[in-house]
Amino acid sequence: MTMTDDAPDAAIERVLDEAYAAFDAERYDRAGELLAGVAAGVAPGLAKALWFDAALCALRMRDWPSARDRGLQAVRFVERGANEPAYWNLGTAATALRDWDLARDCWAGFGMEPLPGTGPIDIDGGPTCVRLGIGEVVWARRIDPVRARVLNVPFDPSRRYGEIVLHSGAPSGERVSGGVTYPVFDEIELFEASPLATLAVRVTARDADDIEDLSARFARDGYGMEVLNSRVDRCSCCSEGTHRSERGRFDGEQPLFIAAPEDTAHAVLDTWTRDRPDARSWTDLHPA
Fold first, then answer.
1. Which of 63, 99, 183, 286 has an alpha carbon within 20 to 30 A of 37's alpha carbon?
2. Other C-beta atoms lying within 10 Å of the C-beta of residue 43
């Protein structure tokens, strides 16, 4: 929460006390309503903080139209190109509402290079990690400042490879892979579902290279594969620390999750097996 040095009169001060008490109690609907009501009638020095906090309340509730409307008021009081969080919050709301022109303007207003084009933003923002609402951390590729496409097959089949997630702007942990550290962002909401349901299968292979080869075959076709024994469970506190990514152990027989149409998965598994029939086999392909 933010405050200001401007001194409101006693009546306004009582309303603000109630508003911030509601905020602390996570009653964001009441807090936002009170803050916006006061912000509309006070001097700019006080209005700047109140509009920001009112928009933040709407953001916490996922009330995207109110977050946009209050955010538009909040950015009136801040400098463009100065990394002001009011622009970031408004950009998040605009993205959730699929208002791509406003989102582009917000990222430029925040201080980023202008994003080219019109319509949905889809840039290659590089790899990152996202903590899904179910608590699982997955690898993803950022397609704009607050969205990422999931690149793992989640261990929970209720979530899917290829879905697009709206995520927070502040990291809550790190993952290290190949000597590079990547931030972990918390999911705000599922932005776009994936059509690829998760399949389960059990494969037998002679060595770890066989499993890597199978994964590469699915990846070449734009699909995903996950070795179930690579799963590492952590409590919520530990999950927010820094962790190194490790390969799952190999024991000759592997349960896998696959994200691909069933007929495609069947064909890839058959081809993979035929290439080394003495070392590879699979069985029991079914929806997870």
1. 99
2. 10
**94/174 same-domain check:** no
C-alpha 190/C-alpha 170 separation (Å) is 18
Last residue of a domain, one of 151, 172, 192: 192
Same domain, 169 and 202: no
> Which 3 state secondary structure label does DSSP give 135?
coil
Give me the number of domains the chain comprises: 3
Q: What SS3 state is found at 133?
A: coil
DSSP string, 236-275: HHHHTSEEE--PPP--SEEEEEEES-HHHHHHHHHHHHHH
Summarised one tens digit per residue, pLDDT across range 61-79 is 999 999 999 999 999 999 9
CB 172 within 8 A of CB 192: no
Give the length of the chain. 288
Asked if residue 94 and residue 25 are part of one domain, the reply reads: yes
Pairing of strands 281-287, 198-204: antiparallel
